[in-house]
Please model this.
Amino acid sequence: MTDLSTPPLPGALPDKRQVAASFSRAAASYDSVAELQRNVGNALLERLPEGLQPRRWVDLGSGTGYFSRALAGTYADAYGVAVDIAEGMLQHARPLGGAQAYVVGDAERLPLASASVDMLFSSLAVQWCSDFAAVLGEARRSLQPGGVMAFASLCVGTLGELRDSWQAVDGMVHVNRFRRFEDYQQLCGASGLQVISLEQVPHVLYYPDVRGLTHELKALGAHNLNPGRPGGLTGRARMTGLLQAYEQFRQPQGLPATYQVVYAVLRKPLDGGN
Model:
């Protein structure tokens, strides 16, 4: 697991302590602006193998519990565990129900016994993990033989319009970095888990103006958390430059924000492994 006490390297993913704190603060506002998250999570649910009947499932990066409740409705007789790095999200989710247990935990070091669960479901959470090989290793360890991991994540190209617009303004890091789709292919292929499906699908949302997008990112807790991001308030001149630069992307539906989503379904071989 990455040592969170070490200063981040240039180009590194965000510090997970900041991720946890940001999403905890966003717990109350998250669901009101989570259109993408709902669309992606529902698409991931549709990719689960037919006939899957887990006795124990885990919603990894469970957030407000929206998909914990969906999983509970689908697998009514199963025992559900909601795991999230942000304690504030779990506190928000617990009274709403869905899972039987709510656990603060890190996907790179899961608080689960080996071979203890039949399904890991994770929608738009593991993109915050810098050591994705460790995430896959923990999935293989904690799944029963034949168990399934289904995840949706983000890859390079996400918020490309916003990134390019900021690049035209000041060249600084304003948009979260994500790993390449090819990295997901390589890491999943080397994980010891069977790759049932792995694909990249663009999702495009439209906004009347840039402020609508940036407000939504802040309400989601998903605004810029990268090392090297500019500190302090964004000046009026830079914001004006951003608005002008982003206008080149405008379409009849509004200003597009493209998310490149990775969908994967993996299975632990029946012959096990650790």
Residues 148 and 239 are 45 Å apart (CA to CA). The chain has a mean pLDDT of 84. The domain at 16-158+176-206+221-226+257-267 is CATH 3.40.50.150 (Rossmann fold). The longest strand covers residues 194-207.
